[in-house]
Hints:
2 copies of one chain form a homodimer. The first copy, chain A, is of the alpha/beta class. Chain A has 4 domains: 4-191, Divalent-metal-dependent TIM barrel enzymes (TIM Barrel, Alpha-Beta Barrel), CATH 3.20.20.150; 202-268, no CATH class; 281-405, Roll (2,3-Dihydroxybiphenyl 1,2-Dioxygenase, domain 1); 417-590, 2,3-Dihydroxybiphenyl 1,2-Dioxygenase, domain 1, CATH 3.10.180.10. Helices cover 32% and strands 25% of the residues of chain A. In chain A, the strands form 3 sheets. In chain A, strands 17, 18, 19, 20, 21, 22, 23, 24 and 25 form a 9-stranded mixed β-sheet that branches. In chain A, strands 14-15-13-9-12-11-10-16 form an 8-stranded mixed β-sheet, covered by helices on one side. A 7-stranded parallel β-sheet of chain A has the order 1-2-3-4-5-6-7. In chain A, strand 23 (542-546) and strand 24 form a beta hairpin. The model of chain A has no long low-confidence stretch (mean pLDDT 92). Chains A and B meet through strand 1, helix 1, helix 7, strand 7 and helix 8 of A and strand 1, helix 1, helix 7, strand 7 and helix 8 of B.
Amino acid sequence: MHTSIATVSLSGSLTEKLTAAARAGFDGVEIFENDLLASPLSPEEIRARCADLGLRIDLYQPMRDIEAVPQEVFASNLRRARHKFDLMRRLGADTVLVCSSVSPLALDYDGLAAQQLVQLSEMAAEFDIRVAYEALAWGRYVNTYDHAWRIVEAAGHPALGICLDSFHILARGSDPRGVAEIPGEKIFFLQLADAPLPAMDVLQWSRHHRCFPGQGGFDVAGLVRLVLAAGYRGPLSLEVFNDVHRQADAGSTAVDAHRSLLLLQEAVGTAELPPPVVPTGVAFAELLTADAEPVAAVLAALGFTRTARHRGKPVDLWEHGEARILVNTAADRREGTRLAAIGLASADPAAAARRAQALHAPVLPRRRAPEDALLDAVAAPDGTELFLLAAEEPQLHAWRGDFADLQDTPESACGTRVDHLALTQPWHHFDEATLFHRGVLGLDAQESVDLADPYGLRRSRAVANADGSVRIALTVGAAPADETVHAAHIALATDDVVAAARSFRAAGGRLLRVPGNYYDDLAARFTFAEGELEAYRELGILYDRDAGGTFRHCYTETVGRVFFELVQRDPGHHGYGAANAPVRLAAQHAGRLLR
Amino acid sequence: MHTSIATVSLSGSLTEKLTAAARAGFDGVEIFENDLLASPLSPEEIRARCADLGLRIDLYQPMRDIEAVPQEVFASNLRRARHKFDLMRRLGADTVLVCSSVSPLALDYDGLAAQQLVQLSEMAAEFDIRVAYEALAWGRYVNTYDHAWRIVEAAGHPALGICLDSFHILARGSDPRGVAEIPGEKIFFLQLADAPLPAMDVLQWSRHHRCFPGQGGFDVAGLVRLVLAAGYRGPLSLEVFNDVHRQADAGSTAVDAHRSLLLLQEAVGTAELPPPVVPTGVAFAELLTADAEPVAAVLAALGFTRTARHRGKPVDLWEHGEARILVNTAADRREGTRLAAIGLASADPAAAARRAQALHAPVLPRRRAPEDALLDAVAAPDGTELFLLAAEEPQLHAWRGDFADLQDTPESACGTRVDHLALTQPWHHFDEATLFHRGVLGLDAQESVDLADPYGLRRSRAVANADGSVRIALTVGAAPADETVHAAHIALATDDVVAAARSFRAAGGRLLRVPGNYYDDLAARFTFAEGELEAYRELGILYDRDAGGTFRHCYTETVGRVFFELVQRDPGHHGYGAANAPVRLAAQHAGRLLR
């Protein structure tokens, strides 16, 4: 039989995946949409590459959240579908996978699903495309293959058939014998996967995935309160079976563990800690480098001005609006440029440091030189130095007194300030880092999200204060990190990312090049003002939108182990562009910059 | 409050764990039994170490499968308990964790459970020990804390209380408010752990843990048969979301993927492959080294004789009984000694090679020199060369003709032959290796088991032919492997492991030293003939027993990346000593050899 493989099943760039599939003897591929979006090849070039390799494009996938929705939503879905059918024609793909809706807008109404799938199939037929409808095991209303088949049968359209996926059928424990009732010609596609059984029972969960209190989803504190209320006076003891801790350094795991018990005791009231002093802003970010020249060039292009120099150390202060970056050239040449320290504005630095110390954060030497200001500083688990700096006058910028002015700070431009800092964590210590930032600094943690790097999955979790003036994104990957791609980065907020990006380029800065396929997809998903999308395409600006507003962002070249991001964030948007991360990471791996 | 941590929560040796816990500020520890067994420190030395570090031993754990069993089983359980209470007295631990039974022998009878727990607590009280009874979330009959409490309350013994564990309570979704009904003084211990929620839903299962057909637990072939019977004639397409494949080399993943589809098609009858020719024995194992001296010394001590030398290559044949080992000195000096090739006896080597080739196994050059015998050889995914050799006369030992005799093969001693070969796999390719050995060679795979290496979990899965004359254990770890510990090894079967071990030592061979705590535990678990256990203790022989019989084994020092195991296996025993692996691996990490 004709054999095929979905590109999502393989690691790497789309061209690497296609080559590997062809060499292994596959006859065709399913093109996974995200792989296409992240590829610099146009649809025509991908089609030609497949033809050269002797691969047929058997399927384009997935098209999501199409059916059983209110009519105005469906109108926009059809518009999106037309874009994709056009893309498929360019690609030479004749079958599209439509998976059952998971949208909260979807209605539990098979008649509507069938009717809208007929409309979709009518349009598909104009492009000589077939629609293969698949029940996702977690579909909102349609989640079994027999349900999907009832809808397809009721629709009765020649361009509409069913896609069967062994995972979705067998993972649900559906009786597969019902397949016999489906006419073979209406089974448009068959996707195969196996999976280990049992996926995860409570025994596996317990043996491999326990974590320290505050790092998971249990209300451990609530339970401890009940146990204490019952009169228990014995030890609080941690018993955590965890595959990661089995490999990690025992010393730092033990510190992480004990910190979690201290925070738990604070929560249940059996121990008192100095209360958290939540930082109120990012005073500065400090880059450590042996050679200031490359990073200075990027900073200058970004609009930063070198305004001051430390009186006793080889440290320059660069300012742009409210964003301040220290460039410290005391690094060993082999280290490369890296983000070494963060200055956090605090209503009470000494109290914040006392809490950090009580929670096992190493307190760092507080003074760089005898004549320097006294600074409270602690080390985060990843080694980043956190300086705790007075935010109130007259102490405001006490640290600034250690610097001699070189020239006046220019006027604030475009509201530039630090939007967020992104720090790559050593993978054994991701949960520790999150608990540290929550427990020690009093920041709130968002849910963690998966980011599909082409060479391995990464996890990201952001911590922030309530007004978003301090945001830190922590990321980690199971794979050894490519330090130029998985570098730390500094995201600068601006009121106008298009203007900021143009100005950066005009000053000689180089921005990350984003594939054209990405912008074709944006055009299918959103409507834009005249010229808006063209500007994004020209400048490599990525775009995301949710109920809270839009998020526009672009990336600079990487210097050593640091790069910069320009961000235009609507006040109600609290994301970090996770949806765009696969495209961004692929472009960074490929090292593609705008010319 | 007094804070404590179970040693199982940390990585490393017991002494590393204790040091880390003390440094982080813990007041006490739970000693996890396996950590004690793997430690070279005696209970008294552990007690002293804890005292020096300011750690109290708050708990000894776990005691398993004690209660609600038939009386004769309980008598043996009490005997085991007495050993452990004695150990705890030496250790200075006053509370033992008894977790609810998971044994198939357990009865659903709370009255019996209470009665036997009273008997156990009576005995514990003699040692001034308290028994903390805990409901495991997967206990056979007792799996909720309120059920465990009803039993403890009914038992009404002062030395018997309950142990509460946040994981077991919250993972089951039990209402924790029932804790209020338990008198505080009857809560003997509180164990804390958090866990991510949801542990694993079908969406997570699908996105991260799919695998290729034949590598999981689904009946994918059964489904495909139904789909074909329905008349489907489209592609067979793989759609596999898998975190490991996302990181692995796309080329080898694609080969693995295509092989799985070929085997699937063979299973459903849409493709024909040359049928499998199951190997019937291990003809030889070949070691590649730059310096034959160290390995030759070990082989000689094991009783091997150098019987022949290859006519054209720097390869010696060593024989002992039916075990044959080739020592090839053509290695680059930097490579170190490694297990490079396996000779498998086959009823039809050419047919076996045809199947291997059809399943993408690289076929290796079949002839070492023009005058050498024609050999069929393929490469396994880990690079091990598999020679397929005629097992029938007159071709038997055709390969042997390439060797010139040096001296006669000595008489077979103690039935020595190769019991099994253990190969460490690159971690991205573990499932591929299993499918290769099953699909290409026609071997059967056992269930995979977890092995707790002190520095990270490992997985092991054995493949074997029906009569056990070919057994290969494949192991993999998530952590980078320590190549001296996670070396390949050759296990030699003997009829008398005590005699073989003695003879090896007498000849100057060095065996792995096994901690005394391990033998104290054996004494608690099994009864031995007079002098039997003492012999094991003297020689570092490990012991396992199941319904199929006993398995006795010991390990030699490691040479480069190879070591040897001596095995005495009852015919009905099909294991590989997995239960002893944590102790063995810890001893190998520590590099402890018998003097």
